[in-house]
Amino acid sequence: QVQLVESGGGLVQAGGSLRLSCAASASFSIYAMGWFRQAPGKEREFVAGISWTGVDTDYTDSVKGRFTISRDNAKNTVYLQMNSLKPEDTAVYYCARGVGVRPTRDAYDYWGQGTQVTVSS
Question: Coil, strand or helix: which one is 9?
Fold first, then answer.
């Protein structure tokens, strides 16, 4: 059983930054990882993904140029650096372990419990 624990969420003003972390309990380094988010009343959506090597990344269009996904396999941790935050980025952010860098939920098998990000205007 793999456990994923997100941290780093919080309340920030528009234009600010946050860095999310996701620590995995095991079986991390050979898997792709992804970040998703879910706003109230909306579907959970793909935000960013990274291959197990860290070479390949993908982002949803709305965060390109503002968010950066990275990983440290020695620490079993994946990060999401979020800059120039906007109120529409407000959501619960989830990390997940995946079989590839794919923007669909069915490509990910283990999920964290989520961390709340709130961006005030």
Answer: coil
